[in-house]
Amino acid sequence: MDNTDQLKTFLSLFAVNLPTLLVCCIAVIVIFTKWRQASSAAIWALVGFGLILILCVVMPLGQTVLQHWVYQSGDRLSRMWAFSALGVASSLLHAVIYTFLLVAIFAGRPKAAG
């Protein structure tokens, strides 16, 4: 796999994340415009959406590097575990992101009288 193939692989994997990347960029702009109205919630939301932005670049890059590493030699079967490890790491990071966004929903809200 040469550098041109790696770049094509990265761009094709990155293209899948473009809608998410666009929504996150808009979300970050909205968070900054509403910062004064709900600063404690904005911090959590900014961390959540910021992590998503990072994952939109890091995951395709990681998949590209892994594909190059796994397929560069004839020992593919012993290296296939790396794809599972990357998938598990991605899943765990998404769970953390959803937790941040959930906290952002409730952060700074007054407690209901009851």
Main attributes of the structure:
mainly alpha, 0% strand, elongated, single chain, 4 helices, 114 residues
Would you mind describing this structure in some detail?
With 114 residues, this protein is mainly α. The protein has one domain. It has four helices and no strands. The chain has helices at residues 3-16, 18-33, 39-71, 81-106. Helix 1 runs antiparallel to helix 3 (39-71), helix 2 runs antiparallel to helix 3 and helix 3 runs antiparallel to helix 4 (81-106). It is elongated, with a radius of gyration of 19 Å. The model has no long low-confidence stretch (mean pLDDT 89).
Structural class: mainly alpha
Shape: elongated
In round numbers, the mean pLDDT is 89
Biggest beta sheet summary: none
Q: What letter string, H or E per element, gives the SSE order?
A: HHHH
